[in-house]
Design a protein that fits this description.
Blueprint (H helix, E strand, L loop, with lengths): L26 H28 L3 H28 L4 H19 L1
Helix pairs in contact: 1-2, 2-3
Length: 109
């Protein structure tokens, strides 16, 4: 789904392509950027867990799983920021955070 919020909207197909147009984000733009950051954190978690699961080296696996924990902290922080930007959706975000933590726990088990 493509969003069209006007000509001043920064291009944000991913957080890696955010282009500044010398203006501050609107509330909607900030929410969109935070959602992209959250998605990137979860994508990183998936990639790192696949790497950890694919190695027989326990030391490497432990280091990578530590990185996974750090990425989860980042995702949680972005969720918190998003809930501050759009507080009326806080319940949805809290539910999504818990659901994602449960999924990650099942993957690790």
């Amino acid at each position: 789904m493509e969003f069209h919020l006007g000509d001043n909207m920064p291009e944000m197909s991913s957080t890696h392509s955010v282009k500044s147009l010398n203006h501050r984000f609107t509330r909607a733009e900030l929410a969109r950027a935070l959602r992209l950051a959250i998605a990137d954190e979860y994508e990183a978690i998936q990639i790192y867990e696949q790497i950890a699961e694919s190695t027989e080296d326990e030391e490497i696996r432990e280091v990578i799983m530590h990185i996974v924990e750090e990425e989860q902290k980042h995702a949680d922080q972005f969720w918190d920021l998003l809930a501050r930007v759009i507080p009326e959706e806080r319940e949805i975000y809290d539910s999504a955070v818990e659901e994602n933590k449960e999924i990650i726990q099942r993957i690790r088990s």
